[in-house]
Design a protein that fits this description.
It is a single chain. By secondary structure, the chain is an all-alpha fold. It has a single domain, classed as Growth Hormone, Chain: A (Up-down Bundle), CATH 1.20.1250. The protein has 9 helices and no strands. Helix 3 packs across helix 6. The longest helix is centred in the last third of the chain and has 43 residues. The mean pLDDT is 87. It comes from Sulfurospirillum barnesii (strain ATCC 700032 / DSM 10660 / SES-3). It is found in: Cell inner membrane; Cell membrane.
Amino acid sequence: MMVDFFNLLLQYTITIIAIVDPLGVSAIMLSLLPQNTTKEHINKIAAKATMTIIVAFFVVLLSGNFLLNLFGIEIDSLKVMGGIILLLTAIKMVQGSMESKNQTEEERQEAIKNDEFSIIPLGIPITFGPGVFATIIILRGEHLEMLSLSALVLAYLIVALSVYLAFKNSIYIRKYLGITGQKIVSRLMGLIVGAIAVQFIVGGVSVLVKHYM
């Protein structure tokens, strides 16, 4: 049982961390902030953004099956749609087009002064986007046992911790990896996300074809 738990934990952690891409979103966070942002303020933003994505995770985890049943959506249909969303995200990651648009200095100053910046857009949808939303519902719907549910929760908390550390140390990450290094990591994560997306699509389509044909 412990072997199955750790296998699921490893699988879920790799899947979610590839989709979230902590190094990539930390670079986006820095691009949204002015150059004179203090380390203390970055720490505050990191903590609040991390709490945002943790709360969002548990909301989706607890309400996901209810929403599927409410709208009469089959999990395999969601796998196909979620796979398409992930595939589009993966293409953007590989092409390096996930970076934020240029802002004026006035907009940057307003962003750093506004506490909601940590929640929207940094927490949602930059870090916790549609791809993460769909993936959590799919993983939750595929495995209903307590063992897999515990592995999913722990895996996400591990990913949330990695996001916090990436945000908190984003200045040092950029210093040592450089912009090019961060882009390389994001492109590699994009390839993994693309492979996960294809698995979701193929798995969902194969079941739907057998069901309706």
